[in-house]
Amino acid sequence: MKNALLFIFSLLFCELIFAQVTYEKFESQKLNATRELKIRLPDDYNPDSDLKHPVIIVFDAEYLFEPVAGQVSYQTYFDEMPKSIIVGVVQGKERFYDSYFDEVTGLPFESGDRFYNFIDQELIPYIDSKYNTSKFKVAVGHDLMGNFINSFLFHDTPIFQAYINLSPDFKGTMSENVKTRLEWLDSDVFYYLATADGDIKSIRDRIRTTNDNLKTLDNQNLTYYFDELIGDSHYTLVSGALSKALDRIFELYKPLDDKELREKALPYEGTLDDYIVDRYKRIDDLFGIFKPISEEELQRLITLADQREDIESVYKIGKLANKLNPSSSFGTYYMALHAEKLGKTKRAVKLYQSALDLNEMSHINKEFIMSHVEDLKFVEDDTETEDDEEN
């Protein structure tokens, strides 16, 4: 019964995705032909909004678009990745010509070169001009198109910032060329490579060799991931690999989790407000999108500050919270708590009383704040000065 319900849910989910896809005919001068595009915008996409969205270009869209769209919908629902614009290029019988390569280098050649120029000089500029796109672009390719997407790395500034290679059939010296290019990258690139134990042997062997070469690279601008899925074939690996690829590429975008708090925030040498601000600045720099810091994350950092016995971070996080959301009592409460712990009773009471005039939080309401005020007593030897009561 459970499996039957899951199957029905999957069908309804796929039907919903299919209903939200727009089909367009694109007249390409580079190809001297018309190409069909599949485009899926975020559910709440607003063309008048300032919100920007990453763009995911899916090759072989006739069979690869729906798996990508499904994974993106699932992960954005749980805020595991930013809401993205998905653009699928339907290739069909043109695939052989689109992926045509030089037998020595494996790079696009003749009709393959024309297809490269169509993507670079026509399709991406068109999408950027029509939709609210961020600078972050992802290429998804399988088999021959997996080999093809690597050619975009060799642009002076890589056209895509993330490459999802699903069992790529590396041609010529493409594998060696990729290693050399990734070794000397001077801009941030995410590179994902996947095979499976049931993959086509010649393809899997070449991918394994490529992985042996890439995992030795020491380049701070490169974020490299490799997976060899168990129990999958050249075709069935697509779903599992896509899930892992998107999960890892957008790992920084996710809300703070226990692993990051334990491994990165806990040993951080500065105050924790700097940690979270730097983290979100990196999200903006990498993905070209603004994501607000949530009070839930600030609360987790407060708990961590207590664990670190880092009272200064409590105060700094309170100040940051006030800046982010002046109408919430969150920041003022923790600034008051900081003053209370330092023995600055007058300042603590003053701040607690200010917090009473602000919006409550679920775990810090007016009664809870008043309990602090009632427990504090003014002392004659309180030595705090006006200088202590900054901002």
UniProtKB/TrEMBL annotation:
Species of the source: Psychroserpens burtonensis
PANTHER family associated with the record: ENTEROCHELIN ESTERASE-RELATED, FERRI-BACILLIBACTIN ESTERASE BESA
One Pfam family here: Esterase
Protein name as it appears in the record: Esterase
Highest taxon in the source lineage: Bacteria
Signal peptide: none
